[in-house]
Amino acid sequence: MKKIVLILCFFVLFWVGEKGMERAVETVNELSDQDHPEIALTFDDGPHEIYTERLLDGLKERGVQATFFLIGQNIEGREDVVKRMKAEGHLIGNHTYHHVNLKGISEKEAEEEVIMACNKIYDTVGICTSFVRPPFGEWKKNLDFDITMIPVSWNVDSLDWTTENVEKTVKRVVKDVKEGDIILMHDIYASSVEAALRIVDILQEKGYEFVTVDELLLE
Hints:
Strand 1, helix 3 (51-62) and strand 2 form a beta-alpha-beta unit. It contains ten helices and eight strands. The chain has helices at residues 2-16, 21-33, 51-62, 72-75, 79-87, 107-125, 160-163, 166-176, 190-205, 213-218, and strands spanning 38-46, 67-70, 91-94, 131-132, 150-151, 156-157, 182-186, 209-211. It is α/β, with parallel strands linked by helices.
C-alpha cells in the first residue's frame, strides 16, 4: 500500500505541480485510512495488580484501545486501574463476579453473577456495561436481565494461558487473524502482555486498526 501511495504522490506532483501536492497528500491519506481492516483485541480475567497497568502503558504508547472483560471480585483494591481503562478510552465489559461457568449454575445464580459484576463496574467507573463475556464461552440463554446483555465471543483464541510462551502466542494469533476478528487474550500473565504488544506491533505494520468490541459489532 505504501508503494502505491508513493507512486500516486509522484504522479500528482508531475500533473498538478507543487501547489497541488499538499491537497494530493491529504487525499491519499484519506484513501489510505479507508483501507485499514479493523480487529478487536480483548482481555479476560483482570484487572491484575501489575500486568494490567503494564499492558495499559504499552497500549497507550501505540495509540490502541482494547476491550477488557473484568472479573468483579478482581476489581477490589484495583479500582484505580479500572478508572485508568475508562480514562484512556478502553471498553470495559463483564466477565461475571467469580468467573463461573454460567451453564453449571441455576438461572438465578447466573443472573446474580452477571449483575454483581455489572454493579461493581458501575460503582467503580459509573458505566452500565452491556457487554459480557461468559467464562469458557458458556452463555446461559434467556437470562432475564433488566438491561440487555450482549454476549461477546471470539474468532481467534491466542491460548496464551496454556503455555505462557510469548513466541507461540504471537505466531498463533498473527497467522490466523483477518478483518473483523476478535482476539482473545488475558492480562493476568507477564507473557501475555509481552505477546499482546508484539502482536499489536506486527499487525499495525500490516495495516490493521485496533478498535473496541462495540465499534466492531455495532457499526
